[in-house]
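User: I'm designing a mutation panel for Coenzyme Q-binding protein COQ10 START domain-containing protein and want to avoid disrupting the core. Could you give me a predicted structure to guide residue selection? Please restate the sequence first so the numbering is unambiguous.

Assistant: Good idea. Sequence first, for numbering, then the predicted structure tokens:
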Amino acid sequence: MVSPLPRSCQLKRVALIAFLLGLSFASVQGRKKDRSAGHPHRGLLKKLSPGPFTLDLSGKDEDCLSADRAVMKSIEDESGQGGTAICVQDVKAPKSAVWNQILDLQSYVGKVDRVRECENYHVKRNDDGRWNIKTKMVVSVLPGYKYEYYCDHIYAPDCDSMTWSLDYDKLSDFDDVAGHWHLEEHPKKPGCTRVFYTCDIKLKGSVPKAIKDILTKKALRDATAWVKRESEANTSAAIPAQFAPAY
């Protein structure tokens, strides 16, 4: 009978496998890609619509939010076979200060964990008063796991929402993305904002669970956490002048 390896050896083996997988993934990513070639499809995830979420918060949820803790909720889809995870966070700052942080995409580096590049390459106001913002983003998750992707945002000031998918005219390392920010004035605290955030990411191929968790579960809480931190540090900030309402 073969004796099992000591636990220390088992951990070293797992670390080595993860390292080798990372090298393999980095090698594939390192090949030059024609980003202008377009994505292999025009969308797999359900597109999200601007506006409020249909979401019930319990007394326990309200207690968590009052204690400055984020609340994770789930909305079941129409089929009953799945749902969307949503993170809710109260921010001690007005909506204008929160939008200042969210819309200033080109300042995400240094504020948002794992974001290495964030650059708008198209910003245009549509005839309906909404804004189309296309952004190149690069995130580094763990050594050997870096993703470059291109987001197509719609900022809808009339709904206090911003939704996004991939820009399918560009080739992204994610298979698909669907996200939604929504802001509401706090129901009981004047000058405060209730933030709702969701983002679904579909990855290509086989990816270690640790990477999936960082890009999905952890990313939801991290997103509202940095927005809360930065907004509360600059409560007098206004919506960026570029996106300010025209009167």
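For picking mutation sites, this is relevant: Strands lie at 71-76, 83-91, 115-125, 131-142, 145-156, 161-166, 176-185, 193-202. Confidence is low (pLDDT under 50) at residues 14-20, 23-28.
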